[in-house]
Design brief:
The protein has 331 residues and is an alpha+beta fold. The chain folds into two domains: 98 residues, Phosphorylase Kinase, domain 1 (2-Layer Sandwich); 211 residues, Aminoglycoside phosphotransferase (APH), C-terminal lobe (Aminoglycoside 3'-phosphotransferase, Chain: A, domain 2), CATH 3.90.1200. The chain is built from eleven helices and nine strands. A hairpin with a 2-residue loop joins strand 2 and strand 3. The chain binds adenosine-5'-diphosphate and the ligand N[C@@H](CCOP(=O)(O)O)C(=O)O. The site of the ligand N[C@@H](CCOP(=O)(O)O)C(=O)O has 10 residues, from helix 9. Adenosine-5'-diphosphate binds next to loops. Belongs to the pseudomonas-type ThrB family.
Length: 331
């Protein structure tokens, strides 16, 4: 149950009044999620009911939040299906509720698809590409805070908890990623705001006439400026991976890359570096899961995900380098 901070109807009412969203008719704690307090709220305005999500941020501060919320607003206003944060009269997007930073966004419809097919992957791939293009006109800059410099800082912290084989894998991979980051072809990659954590559980689909229809992306709180191809690799490492074995699902990957490529054709340099970025994405999540698992932050409410899954994905990505059919298909 992800309600760590209780919000009363009258507290929600006061915020919705300030935001001119009307009268709150229902307020329900959201059972999903592990990091923040989320409430689903309905409000009536001029005879119409609208559904919202009220989030109280338990980890991020008042200072950190504007980047993420402004990015969501920018993307929503540029036609990307993401929750749009509501601003007050002064344009503020972050508010104080129970001394916690809080925001109100529109509620997306649908549910996550935890067993995605090529059709789901095609829709996510296309919207990911459109999201990258829409992000070109977003001006605020914040690096991906879970990028290379965080990996360099964090690998030494988790090393004492690893076996000899794991130590070898992670240190060799880190060295390889530092080498890649120093390449001029890497420096020239197109970049901009990326989601950086667009896993299956951060995307919702409706069902229309028995077919899935993407309703939106959410949970932008790992977003930052990084290469677009890294964002694509993070997605391929979740949407196109067999969760039991860590093996590539070539059909899903083909569909994901082909539809991304149709919206924004990949550059030759991006194709060349995709195998390296698939390894980077696997390292990033193996490392964050190891860090959460072995060094849980004090009073953390996070339930650590299984690190060994991304160790398996990394091992596969290193040994198979790439499913060449997949890349050839989007040429
Ligand atoms: N804008 C939204 N529209 C619809 N559902 C949402 C929205 N934001 C969050 N949710 C729901 O709330 C759940 C928790 O959100 P999430 O951002 O994953 O929380 P946490 O950051 O605490 O893990 C999600 O699984 C989703 O079902
Ligand atoms: N997708 C990451 C965990 C990020 O947490 P989230 O619940 O905020 O998406 C992982 O699987 O390790």
């Amino acid at each position: 149950m992800a309600v760590y901070t209780e919000v009363s109807l009258s507290e929600a009412q006061a915020l919705f009044k300030q935001l001119k969203l009307g009268h709150v008719t229902s307020l329900k704690g959201c059972a999903g999620g592990i990091e923040n307090t989320n409430y689903f709220a309905s409000a009536e305005l001029e005879g119409q009911t609208h559904d919202y999500v009220l989030t109280l941020f338990e980890r991020l501060s008042f200072e950190q939040l504007p980047f993420y919320l402004q990015l969501m607003k920018h993307l929503a206003q540029h036609g990307i299906a993401v929750p749009e944060p509501t601003a007050n009269d002064k344009g503020a997007l972050v508010f104080d509720v129970k001394s916690k930073p809080a925001a109100v966004v529109n509620k997306l419809s649908g549910a996550s698809e935890l067993a995605p097919t090529p059709e789901h992957c095609a829709q996510v791939g296309a919207m990911l590409a459109r999201m990258h293009l829409a992000g070109r006109s977003f001006e605020p800059q914040q690096p991906n805070l879970r990028g290379l410099s965080w990996w360099n800082d964090t690998v030494p912290v988790v090393l004492p908890y690893l076996t000899q084989a794991q130590k070898a894998l992670i240190t060799q991979e880190l060295a390889y990623q530092n080498h890649v980051a120093a390449l001029s072809s890497y420096a020239a990659l197109p970049r901009g705001p990326i989601h950086a954590d667009l896993f299956r559980d951060n995307v919702l689909f409706d069902t229309v006439n028995h077919a899935p229809v993407l309703s939106g992306f959410f949970d932008f709180y790992f977003a930052g400026i990084d290469t677009w191809i890294f964002d694509l690799a993070v997605c391929l490492n979740d949407w196109c991976i067999d969760l039991e074995t860590g093996k590539n699902n070539a059909q899903n990957a083909h569909s994901f890359i082909a539809s991304y490529n149709q919206e924004r054709p990949l550059l030759a340099a991006e194709r060349a570096l995709l195998p390296a970025m698939l390894r980077a994405g696997a390292l990033r999540f193996w490392l964050s899961r190891l860090w959460d698992f072995h060094l849980p932050r004090e009073a953390s409410m996070l339930q650590a995900h299984d690190p060994s899954h991304f160790e398996r994905v990394l091992t596969q990505r290193v040994s198979h380098l790439l499913d060449f059919d997949t890349l050839a298909a989007c040429a």
